[in-house]
């Protein structure tokens, strides 16, 4: 008498293959999600750094004038800037003004401050703060990141 040999997969083999495939799919989806999230964070960081540079150079272009107002100098269709609270200025600097800026659907808060270092030499400081996670309530003590830029001008 001849025994028939069945070719095919057992239930255990099918379950093991399904587990391996599901781990690979979940890993790929997680990788894609976190890389997208990191790309968004990098975009926000780069945008706020450009905002700080723009504010610092614009203010420096007026030789660090104490009457400088970024609302009148920089407001445009792609940038909305209004007077508002901003991050604290460094301890030894005097606050000039604080603003809320919206650029490319990214909201950040900036504070402009200065310090007269020597006769005719002024240090300009711009601090820009933002939240990486979306929150409806503004709480400056809960900002995720702060970008700070200093410049010097002769006046």
Distance between the terminal alpha carbons, to the nearest Å?
Answer: 108 Å
Structural class by sheet pairing and helices: alpha+beta
Q: Strand order within the widest sheet?
A: 1-2-3-4-5
Strand content: 25-35%
Structural domain count: 1
Brief summary:
The protein has 155 residues and is an alpha+beta fold.
Annotation keywords:
single chain; 155 residues; alpha+beta; 5-stranded antiparallel β-sheet; 2 helices; 5 strands; 35% helix; 31% strand
Structure, described:
- With 155 residues, the protein is an alpha+beta fold.
- The protein has one domain.
- It has two helices and five strands.
- The chain has a five-stranded antiparallel beta sheet with strand order 1-2-3-4-5.
- The longest helix has 50 residues.
- The model has no long low-confidence stretch (mean pLDDT 88).
Write the layout of secondary structure elements.
Elements lengths: L10 H50 L9 H5 L4 E5 L10 E10 L2 E13 L2 E10 L14 E10 L1
Antiparallel strand pairs: 1-2, 2-3, 3-4, 4-5
